[in-house]
Specification:
It is built from no helices and 23 strands. By secondary structure, the protein is mainly beta. The chain is rod-shaped, with a radius of gyration of 40 Å.
Length: about 240
């Protein structure tokens, strides 16, 4: 009896046709099996050369396609996995995804988008972060896109300009922090400096306010606290001395 495809027999008194290996092949009537001549990107199994699908690879002679790591990709009939991400993108699940705003990636085999510094900015799909030192600035009391160096009285926060709070100040530039005024000083929103409170006699400057002194205490202009009268003396409200 003639043997079937992909089986063989040495003849003689053989009563059985042996099956070829998965990476071998034979024709009807053959006395041996020949190794399949599969090329790179093909896997030899089930007696046939199969093209490896996307995100897998195989070398010539392999009997199966190997899956690429999640950080790499491949095309059809690939002999290896590669990274093809462009600048501004990172690898995820065998593909490249765009980095979001205010992050960046150099591409290649990067699996993470790095976050820009607070005083920097980037657009979507960016390969780097930049600080634009152009003519743009912030409008008082609002946050604006990072278009220029902060004005005096503003700080950089979350990639935008933020106007500082009352009783704090900032010299601007690339400052990311508003400094707090001293207790005997005061500032208004958007200020680049603190001014000493102009408290009169009988008032003490603390907590950024001129406070009227209570009975039996006194203060001179510029004092930051009230002084208690001796037990032998008294004072009225807003007194500069005890009598």
């Amino acid at each position: 009896a003639t043997r079937m495809n992909d089986t063989f027999s040495l003849g003689g008194n053989s009563t059985k046709c042996e099956r070829c290996q998965g990476n071998e092949k034979s024709h009807e009537g053959a006395g041996f099996c020949a190794t399949l001549n599969c090329t790179d990107g093909e896997a030899a199994y089930n007696n046939t050369c199969y093209v490896c699908p996307y995100n897998t690879f195989a070398k010539s002679g392999d009997t199966n396609c190997t899956k690429c790591p999640s950080t790499k990709v491949s095309n059809l009939r690939a002999s290896k996995c590669e990274v093809t991400c462009e600048s501004g993108k990172r690898v995820k699940n065998h593909g490249c995804i765009t980095c979001p705003k205010n992050t960046f990636s150099l591409g290649g085999d990067s699996i993470k988008c790095e976050r820009c510094q607070d005083n920097e900015k980037s657009d979507e799909e960016a390969g780097s972060c930049v600080t634009d030192r152009g003519s743009g600035s912030c409008s008082p009391g609002i946050r604006d896109e990072l278009r220029g160096i902060c004005e005096s009285g503003k700080k950089i926060e979350n990639h935008s300009f933020a106007t500082r709070m009352n009783d704090t100040f900032s010299l601007g530039g690339n400052s990311t922090k508003c400094e707090r005024c001293q207790g005997n000083e005061k500032s208004h929103e958007g200020a680049g400096f603190c001014a000493t409170l102009n408290c009169t006699d009988g008032e003490a400057a603390y907590n950024h306010t001129c406070n009227v002194r209570p009975y039996n205490t006194f203060a001179k202009s510029g004092d930051t606290n009230c002084t208690k009268c001796p037990s032998t003396k008294v004072s009225n409200l807003k007194a500069s001395k005890c009598e």
